[in-house]
Amino acid sequence: MHVTLVEINVHEDKVDEFIEVFRQNHLGSVQEEGNLRFDVLQDRK
């Protein structure tokens, strides 16, 4: 099993833009062979 954990800090004024761009990355990643899970979490801050 391979697990990758990444923390990304985004400026408050760029959060919406980041989410939209990262959504595309997420959609592509979940279709990759062998990918069983791809979670994206956001702090409540």
Automatic annotation (TrEMBL):
<protein>
    <submittedName>
        <fullName>Autoinducer-2 (AI-2) modifying protein LsrG</fullName>
    </submittedName>
</protein>
<dbReference type="InterPro" id="IPR007138">
    <property type="entry name" value="ABM_dom"/>
</dbReference>
<dbReference type="InterPro" id="IPR011008">
    <property type="entry name" value="Dimeric_a/b-barrel"/>
</dbReference>
<dbReference type="Pfam" id="PF03992">
    <property type="entry name" value="ABM"/>
</dbReference>
<feature type="domain" description="ABM">
    <location>
        <begin position="1"/>
        <end position="44"/>
    </location>
</feature>
